[in-house]
Each structure stands twice: as structure tokens, then as C-alpha cells.
Amino acid sequence: MKLFNIFKPKKKQILGSEPPFVAEMRENERRFHQISKAEFSKLEDSQLLDAMLYWVHNLRWNKMVKLEDLSEPVKNAYVCFSVYGEIMNGGLNQVFFNETKYYVHLCVDGYEKIGAPEISTIIKEAMDIVTNQKGRYEALDDGTLDSFIESYVDDPLSDLDDVFYEKSDDIDLCQVITNYIRLNIDSFGN
Fold it and tell me: pTM here?
């Protein structure tokens, strides 16, 4: 019996094969992008956030539905969860360099309506900082990776990141958004 197999030849990945997480994403996209209201209402809570994202992405990108034209519950859930995802991925700084910068303002009201006013306050503070340092953000927002990386040097939003992470954990923000979707389930699905 070998204790160590460090010299054992590794299995080669077949060119063109996808990592398992990509296959899962493709399956979710296939399953949820055209989901009906009846199917949406039968989903387990653990599936609601993914289903909502794929369904809204389909509406926005394939059917060209504007964010402003979504129903209020759908818009609130979508913008709040999308901004949450950006912050968890790269902090508040990232929110103002990606697509979310165009709709982060909707989160101020959105987080209030979903039942997370403390998160709304943090987003408002971040927006105020970005407004007050508009020149800094405009100079760094040239679409290059170097400028994006540089934007994290002396990031004026980093202290708020810590507050956001703590508050979102304290209230279990994903569950708050899930509960909001469940409460407004008739607004979700085709």
C-alpha cells in the first residue's frame, strides 16, 4: 500500500471539458432563465437567489427589459443581491467600478424595503464618499486593470467594507433577501 501518491501521473483534463462549477452554472441558467411563476413558487429557499439572478439576467440581456421596468419586488431583490455579491467579491470599491455603479443608488431604497435599513445606511455612506471624491473615482475609472488595482490603494471605502461585512453577517443578508422574495413570490417567474 502506497502512503504517498505524489509521483502518480495526474489525470489529464480533456480539452474542451468544463470544470464542475461551470457545468452547474450552465444547468442553473438552463433551468431558471425561463422559469414560470408556478415553478418559482415551488423552489426551496436555498434555490431562490440563484433562480432570481438567472431569471432576471435573461430578462435584462436576452429580452432587453430595463431595470427600471421590472416590478418593484424584482428590482429590489435583484439590485440588493447583485450589489451584495459585488461587495463580497471585491468590497464597496468594486461596486463603483462595475456595472453595479449604474444602479447602486437603487439599493438605498431597496435595502430599506427588503428589511435591511442598516445596509441601506452603509450604501448611502459609500455613495456620499464616492460623490465627495468624484475626481479620484473618475480618474481611476478608465477601464484598465492597472487603474482598478490602483483604486484599492488608500481605498476610502475600506472601513465601510468591514462595517458591511459585520452587519450583513449579523442580519444574515442573504436570508433577508430570500425572505423578501418568498414574501413577494407572485412577482417572480414568467
Answer: 0.81
